[in-house]
Amino acid sequence: DKGNHRHFMAKEIHEQPEVVGHTLAHYLDMANDRVRLPALPFDIASLKHVAMSACGTAFYAGLIGKYWMERFARVPVEIDIASEFRYREAPLAPGGLAVFVSQSGETADTLASLRYAAQHGQHVLGIVNVPTSTIARESHAIMPTLAGPEIGVASTKAFTCQLGVLACLAVAVGRARGTLSEADEQRLVGALVAAPGLMAEALKLEPKIEVLARTLAKDKDVLYLGRGTSYPLALEGALKLKEISYIHAEGYAAGELKHGPIALIDETMPVIVIAPHDRVFEKTASNMQEVAARGGRIILFTDARGAEEAGVKTEATFVLPDMPATITPFAYAVLVQLLAYHTAVVMGTDVDQPRNLAKSVTVE
Ligand code: F6R
């Protein structure tokens, strides 16, 4: 049932404040600002190494999870696309943690990676949305996302719920390893509790995104840029746009711009910059200035301070409230989803069932 929405994807985008709130509530003790994980059959305090693996959108969630885990818990995290991991025969020291992120829990390459990790003595944790799935069954422990059934082929609410689980896991590991103090934990949990409200703020920008979508629908190529945890979001924004609107899009780490893609910039090229005013904002701002100097059309997703300090003329600027850096991926994800959705609607594509794609990829 789509409710009063035209597509399941729209419904699922709008459900996010609720389902992310629900997922976070499952892993947080909100009364005491603490993380509360289910009992796990391995000791997270003694982890020395984490290997993560997933496909598509779930891989991008994992990439953001890597930034959090390394920052909060100071544990090295390696992340691979599952189709690469399963064949590259990575050496895995026994006793490491291997994390597999999957909405469906049936993705063939992710499952094969899981089996490889289990055979090589890893503790296997599945972050899945379907608790009866094969990946859920074969994992040694699962941390479910509570997104509810996701019908639209393009993943939206499962992605932000995966972020919720990964953030809670990173804080829990940091706390167990002593890299986060109790005060750090309280501050981070306080930030996570605010995420659903900020996603609701992002949804309020929908009318303005709809206007931008009418312009973007005329473009052939779109570049997305981001730095830090906004880099995986740039990848996700580009993936969402190409899969449902069929417009060619690429996501790049902002710092990679001058290593190649800058050659693409001219007056016709839309460049979507995801840049909350965080510790790397100034660096991204200088990349924006490089785009502006070549006449590129900048579409900026930022906050009030970022809008003020960007130092460039933009085609459109979308301003979200200030928020703690840890939760920017939740709110900014909503903007890239809405942009892809409305562009596809303008193009008249089959939004919920894009051509050539399947919801669950059970063959290689
Ligand atoms: C993109 C999308 C795909 C999936 C990928 C993994 O919108 O839906 O990229 O994220 O096929 O699927 P799961 O999460 O089911 O393993």
Report strand order across the widest sheet: 4-3-5-6-7
Give the terminus-to-terminus CA distance. 31 Å
Overall mean pLDDT: 97
Which residues sit in consecutive blocks of at least 5 with pLDDT less than 50?
Answer: none
Please state the CA-atom Rg, rounded to the nearest Å.
Answer: 20 Å
The biggest beta sheet is recorded as:
5 strands, parallel
Number of helices: 13
Bound molecules: fructose -6-phosphate
Strand content: 15-25%
Number of strands: 12
* Structural class assignment: alpha/beta
User: What is the succession of H and E elements?
Assistant: HHEEEHEHEHEHEHHHEHEEHEHEH
Helix content: 40-55%
How would you describe the shape?
Answer: globular
Q: Can you describe what's shown?
A:
The longest helix has 22 residues, at 182-203. This protein is of the alpha/beta class. 47% of the residues lie in helices and 16% in strands. β11, α12 and β12 (316-320) form a beta-alpha-beta unit. The chain binds fructose -6-phosphate. Fructose -6-phosphate is lined by residues 55-58, 102-104, 107, 110, 154-155, 239, 243, 360-361.
